[in-house]
Design a protein that fits this description.
The complex is a heterodimer of chains A (about 140) and B (about 90). Chain A has about 140 residues and is mostly helical. Chain A is about 75% helix and about 0% strand. In chain A, helix 1 runs antiparallel to helix 2 and helix 2 runs parallel beside helix 4. The longest helix of chain A is centred in the middle third of the chain and has 28 residues. Chain A starts with a helix and ends in a 14-residue tail after the last helix. Chain B has one domain. Classes of the chains: A mainly alpha (about 140), B mainly alpha (about 90). Chains A and B meet through helix 2 and helix 4 of A and helix 1 and helix 3 of B.
């Protein structure tokens, strides 16, 4: 299985975790049960970040790395969108902490996305002769 | 990766080795909020800035800092991708 398909599979699982959290209501889900869903989304975000960091450095192509970081950013955005209302509906069930963590991880993913995107533009222009040692 | 010592660059091999090590530590960090990650990134940025100011700008006036930083990051990325086993625990 390639790294890309692994990330795609991970993305599908992550979307399910966010959807499970999002469909909870106080009428149907207890705080304890909801907290488990929050914990699953937190695990998704932390683990996906780790896999993305690992995978994005295996490619020499910064455009591919940028695309991977964009996926990570999108996961965070998806979770944040759900959490904006959930942190009012379930204010004491782990939502504020997950919201803050997700914001921090999104900022880090965005930074890496934009820098790698910039790197990919720069990669189209060869570095001037003599700037770096020649590799044999 | 071996360096042909007869053809050094404005950026030295030793500097590239250190920059690659730092790049791996922050870009590949498993916890982006850790002090280790932040410190590695800060040291990388400072080193890139110093090399640019002291050696690159005087020799290549047309290279903007942002481009130089990307050139360095791309060299580091290529070196890391050519290194053997994966690095789940850097």
């Amino acid at each position: 299985m390639t790294s890309t398909s692994t990330l795609e599979l991970l993305g599908s699982v992550n979307r399910c975790q966010v959807a499970e959290m999002e469909k909870a209501t106080p009428e149907t889900v207890s705080c304890a049960e909801f907290f488990k869903r929050v914990r699953n989304v937190q695990a998704s975000i932390i683990n996906t970040y780790q896999v993305t960091a690992h995978t994005a450095l295996q490619t020499p192509n910064p455009a591919e790395a940028a695309a991977m970081w964009k996926e990570m950013s999108d996961l965070c955005e998806n979770a944040l969108r759900a959490l904006r209302s959930l942190k009012t509906i379930f204010p004491n069930c782990g939502t504020p902490e997950l919201y803050d963590l997700t914001l921090d991880y999104k900022a880090e993913a965005d930074k890496r996305y934009y820098l790698n995107l910039q790197d990919s533009e720069c990669a189209k222009i060869p570095a001037p002769e003599g700037l770096f040692p020649k590799m044999s | 990766m071996r360096q042909d010592t007869s053809s050094g660059g404005v950026v030295s091999e030793d500097e590239l080795v250190r920059l690659t090590e730092l790049f791996l530590k922050f870009e590949g960090a498993t916890d982006p909020l850790s002090n280790r990650c932040k410190e590695s990134e800060s040291e990388f940025n400072s080193l890139v800035e110093n090399i640019y100011t002291e050696k690159v700008k005087p020799a290549y006036d047309s290279i903007a800092f942002s481009y130089f930083r990307s050139y360095v990051r791309n060299v580091c990325r290529i070196r890391i991708s050519k290194q053997g086993p994966p690095f789940p625990c850097v």
